[in-house]
Amino acid sequence: MTTLSLAPNPALRSPPSALRNTLTLARRELRDAVRSRWFLLYTLAFTVLGLAVSFVSAAGTGGSGLSGFGRTTAGLVNLVLLVVPLMALSAGAASIASDRERGMLSYLFSQPMNPSELLLGKFLGLAAALLAAISLGLGSCALILAWKGLRTNPQSMFWLCGLAFMLALGMLSVGMLISTLARRASVAVGTGIFVWLMLVFVSDLALMAGAVALRLRIETLFAASLVNPLQVFKMWSLHAVDANLDVLGPAGLYAVEEYGALLHVMFAGCMVAWVVVPLLLASVVLSRRSPL
Amino acid sequence: MIKINHVSMKFGRSVAVSDATFDIPAGDSVALWGPNGAGKTTLIRCVLGLLRFRGSISLDGRDVRRDGKRARLLVGYVPQELGFHDELGVNEALRFFAALKGLDAVDTSATLEHVGLAGHGGKRVRELSGGMKQRLALAIALLGNPPVLVLDEVTASLDAVGRAEFVGLLERLSGAGRTLLFASHRLDEVATLARRVVELEQGRVRRITPVAAFVAGTEHGAVLHLHIAAHARQEAMRSLSEGGFSPKLNGVGLLVPVAASQKAAPFRVLADARIAVEDFEVVTSAHAADLATRARERRETQP
Asked: Which of B233, B234, B197, B231 is nearest to B215 (CA)?
């Protein structure tokens, strides 16, 4: 072995900036995510299901016509509603809790960095991984639609991709909040899946039951639906692609008549809140709670 | 270099550290000594700013809570065991932590060579043995040549050969003005690496002594390190206590202080209780005193 000559460095260096640490952690997280099984499986499942939806829609219209694209969009919106929140919630939920469980969180905190840098770095890295998965899935669908000769509107596909990414960011943020609160990764991921079930299935049923049982007014019903980020995504994507919300029934009609162009701002505000608020709460929890 | 001032820390109602106060000047090497639950690891975590505590701790004048980022820049930390991501490569790990320490570039080959891991840079972390992982953790701790090294029972999970090599490596590092703060259960390790010993008992600092005085003041002739399966340790503790011994738990089993002429007695007690001893080591006070003397001589002759 070489004789050690590692004398301590008396020169006082400055600690790395918050931006530098955040980007270092984001790159690391992106690399870990891309290598992990969950990312590959979810991306594969999303792409295969998206392609199946595209093929079926294209076959149903004989390979042409705007109605085919509308059907495809509806199918893809529902696919995004199911897969993207699950993907983002489980990625976010596993992120910090698994590091805590392995003792890596306290080790990272023993380095010259702050908890908020760690949180933001992990968030950005996972967000990039999710963006790659969504782009790959929906991009493949767009290629299939073009190949089959459907008159796709590229703008609509970009809207769908962008909104799916917004939804992913919101769910990632919620997942990371869960992760900062949980001691074990399995508990965090389990809670993430429970939240996904609630948002996808139970909240819809509860809203319908509430509307009937409590005879909710249409504006109350619309306001209540804004609480669920999945509903916001659904309404926003249909509004952006089709410019009407007829398919959602009276609540949709009411929203378009009452708010018109303001709907984009309202939906954007809701989605941004779903990204920012859980992330801020996660930051507070992470800096106050022991990393052990 | 390290100032610990009236530090107290509780987990719920349980007191982990109570009013600990001591200074560690630059270049000193201090061991934290005490049984499990004495507060060694908790105090180390407070020094790193990982836990919220009462009182204050500063590293070279930088408060670990108010100026934590700048304070931690001065520290290289090696935990008992490190849970690296399995797929992480060795070189990749070095580059990642170098970036977190604000270093623009790192000579991974030279760094690995310094800790005896030359040629392992291309491996995944999961391919390394326990001892090699600890060496990697030490290599990471040394990135940027920090003036303070903090070690938390770093040899607890290593076998006898791995431990001897690792302690040798640490001894070579502790010279040249580097400040060392470490927790250990092992008398031989303390005798080799420490200049002073802080004895902790139920979170309180019982006394601070030079290592030679500490070793000389060891009440018993020898300490048996018994490796016992985790599920049998409590039962072994109970049997030995009933047999008139004062066993203490450590990372892999039990430490049993015994008189020099009674080293076989704990084995008889455990055999009667049908508790298997997987492995054992004996450290005598005389051996520890010899280690301390030789370590002091080596330090004195170091350039």
From this structure: B197
Tell whether A183 is within 8 A of chain B (Cβ): no
Does B177 lie in the same domain as B246?
Answer: no
CB A224 within 8 A of CB A216: yes
Q: Average pLDDT, stretch A116-128?
A: 96
Calculate the alpha carbon distances from B229 to A35, B243, B252 in Å.
Answer: 36, 20, 8
Å from B127 to nearest chain A CA? 17
Looking at residue B136, which CATH number applies to its domain? 3.40.50.300
Residue of A2, A5, A6 best to disrupt the B interface, most CBs of B under 10 A: A6
Residue type, A84: V
Per-residue pLDDT, averaged over A67-71, amounts to 57
CATH number at residue B260: 3.30.70
- CA–CA separation, A97 vs A90, rounded Å? 11
CB contact under 8 A, A3 and B172: yes
Say if B251 is an interface residue toward chain A (CB within 8 Å).
no
- DSSP assignment of B225-268 equals EEE--GGGHHHHHHHHHHTT---EE-SSEEEEEE-GGGTTHHHH
Please report the pLDDT score of residue B220 as a whole number.
Answer: 58
Let me know whether B191 and B208 are in one domain: yes
Residue of B nearest to A95 (CA): B85
The neighbour count for residue B271, using CB atoms within 10 Å, is 11
pLDDT for A165: 95
* Same domain membership, residue B239 and residue B138: no
The residues that bridge with B150 in the sheet, in sequence order, are B77, B181
Q: From the list B72, B118, B142, which residue is nearest A6 (CB)?
A: B142
Q: Does B83 touch chain A (CB under 8 A)?
A: yes
Is there a single domain that holds both residue B231 and residue B197? no
Nearest CA in chain B to A6: B145
The residue ranges of every structural domain in chain A are 19-288
Structure confidence at residue A70 as a pLDDT band (50, 70, 90): low
Q: B230 and B210, same structural domain?
A: no
B129: helix, strand or coil: coil
A243 in reach of chain B (CB within 8 A): no
Answer whether B52 touches A (CB < 8 Å): yes
Integer CA distances (angstroms), A38 to A87, A88, B89, in order: 8, 10, 20
Complex ipTM more than 0.85, yes or no: no
When scoring A111, A184, A285 by the number of chain B Cβ atoms within 10 A, the one with the most, hence best to mutate, is: A111
Q: Do A103 and B82 touch (CB under 8 A)?
A: yes
Does B209 share its domain with B165?
yes
Could you give the residue ranges of the DSSP H alpha helices within B51-107? 68-72, 90-100
A61 pLDDT tier (thresholds 50, 70, 90): low
Token pair recorded at residue B247: 């066993």
Q: What domain range includes position B243? A: 222-285
Number of domains in chain B: 2
